[in-house]
Design goal:
This protein has 16 helices and 19 strands. By secondary structure, it is an alpha/beta fold.
């Protein structure tokens, strides 16, 4: 059988593209190298609990907000989303003081202005900037707007850190406003304002946690794809894309199976995609070198804590804890590991069953084990993970007294884990590093030198559930334009 569209990789972007294209009536095949779909959206089981790898919370899915229509069309609004505390969906602790992010731009600015009265006007400018970013994102999802047009947004060419320094004179407030940004890489010299705004704005509008696991979201998309007549095949490791007369004709898998298609979408890293195009006469070496040379964001160390029954009360918010008021330094190698995101999966019992702790981790911290594979890295690697887990549990305990004694089991992962499971170069958490100095070099469109090969996923324009969904919509539109 020859398919209209073949998608390599079943991460969120690949599944969303497959859902939309199959709903449009195209025959779609998704090929996934792992034994279950989902990429970083999937969860894994340990005993009687599901542990998420990438889904912790999502912003902006209420009616009229950036993700509402997209989620509605994808069938994802039907999932059991639980709204986080409007009077403090994120709690930022810096030193001995904790600041609550209130839902809604006006309340967000008002509450912080009560603590920082001299910064009231600047806070108004800040939320106005976020509103403009939301408006631009909603406009970009219109079918008449292309990805290329969106990339011309002035926020892409503005440095986020410098913008904050120009608007705010209070260093502590800059740290507070940046405090929830462990869900991105706060790289001082490169981070575009658009990326910073995207990573904060939608969550202020409304923040939600799933009553369930990431597998529920993945299974919903897979069910929709199959219901539309599409296919999702796991255990299919694509090793080569065959090319003829300047077009991709088939995907060849390591088990010898070959799948022919008219259009192809790669949901894997662009540099890894280029490796599948060995021998291509269309994709020139300059393009390959450019993709391979792009810097990647840091990885994450995650400690998932299985808790003893009724030991820690459930909390309906996220905690971001910093021992020092130097939030932006977390993205610099050599920092002393003093920032932790504490996420509590939804529990209807009133008590937490598990807690996830996340902190940045650089490739240099795991590079000595780069030639090893999962479960075969040796005792020194295990000892390193125990030390790292111990350090961040100590930090989390500042806001959760008794946490250490409440832990029953700890399951950890590093950038090596993500590299081996998802083929992510250096285990990058947020894909290619975006650079306001070179927006057209680091912010990629779905198109490639091959007219029937498109890209999607977090490496293109924006990361996270929101950003990947926007990118999937751009890829979907690019495919339809080829029909």
């Amino acid at each position: 059988m020859k398919y209209d569209v073949i998608i390599i990789g079943s991460g969120l972007g690949g599944l969303e593209c497959a859902t939309m294209l199959s709903h449009h009536g195209l025959s779609v095949l998704v090929l996934e190298r792992q034994l279950q779909p989902g990429g970083c959206m999937q969860s894994y089981r340990r005993g009687n609990i599901h542990l998420d790898t990438g889904l912790h919370y999502v912003g902006g899915i209420a009616e009229g907000q950036p993700l509402h229509e997209a989620f509605k069309n994808l069938g994802l609004l039907d999932l059991p989303w639980q709204r986080l505390d409007p009077e403090g969906f994120d709690r930022i602790t810096i030193g001995d003081e904790t600041f609550a992010y209130h839902e809604g731009y006006d309340d967000f600015a008002r509450v912080l202005a009560d603590r920082f009265p001299s910064q009231k006007a600047a806070l108004q400018e800040y939320v106005d900037m976020l509103r403009r970013s939301d408006r631009d994102q909603l406009q970009s999802l219109d079918n008449t707007v292309s990805a290329e047009t969106t990339f011309m947004n002035a926020q892409f060419t503005t440095n986020a850190y410098q913008w904050l320094r120009e608007k705010f004179s209070d260093e502590l407030l800059i740290n507070v406003l940046s405090g929830s940004s462990l869900k991105m890489e706060l790289h001082k010299s490169t981070l575009p304002l658009f990326t910073f705004a995207h990573g904060n704005g939608s969550f202020i509008q409304s923040s939600w946690r799933l009553d369930g696991s990431g597998n529920d979201l993945v299974n919903k998309l897979v069910s929709n794809i199959r219901g539309n007549g599409g296919e999702v095949l796991c255990g299919m490791d694509v090793t080569r894309l065959e090319e003829k007369d300047g077009r991709i004709t088939a995907a060849l898998c390591s088990n010898g199976e070959r799948f022919e298609g008219d259009m192809f979408i790669s949901n894997i890293h662009p540099a890894v995609t280029c490796e599948l195009l060995a021998g291509s006469t269309t994709v020139k070496s300059i393009y390959r070198k450019r993709m391979a040379a792009l810097a990647n964001t840091f990885g994450m160390f995650t400690a998932s804590l299985k808790l003893k029954p009724r030991a820690i009360p459930y909390f309906n918010h996220n905690k971001f804890i910093y021992a020092k008021p130097n939030v932006w330094e977390m993205s610099e190698e050599g920092h002393d590991g003093y920032g932790v995101l504490v996420s509590c999966p939804y529990s209807a019992t009133g008590y937490a069953t598990q807690i996830d702790l996340l902190t940045p981790m650089f490739w240099s911290e795991v590079q000595q084990w780069e030639d090893t594979t999962v479960a075969r890295r040796g005792d020194s690697y295990k000892a390193m993970k125990r030390r790292k887990a111990e350090a961040i549990v100590t930090i989390a305990e500042q806001q959760l007294p008794g946490l250490r004694d409440a832990v029953e089991e700890i399951y950890t992962s590093t950038p090596l884990t993500y590299r081996d499971y998802n083929k992510t170069p250096q285990g990058s958490a947020y894909g290619i590093r975006k650079d306001f100095n070179q927006p057209m070099m680091t912010i990629l469109t779905p198109r490639t030198p091959l007219p029937n090969l498109m890209l999607t996923g977090q490496n293109l324009m924006l990361h996270g559930l929101h950003g990947v969904t926007m990118t999937a919509l751009f890829t979907y539109k690019a495919i339809l334009q080829q029909q």
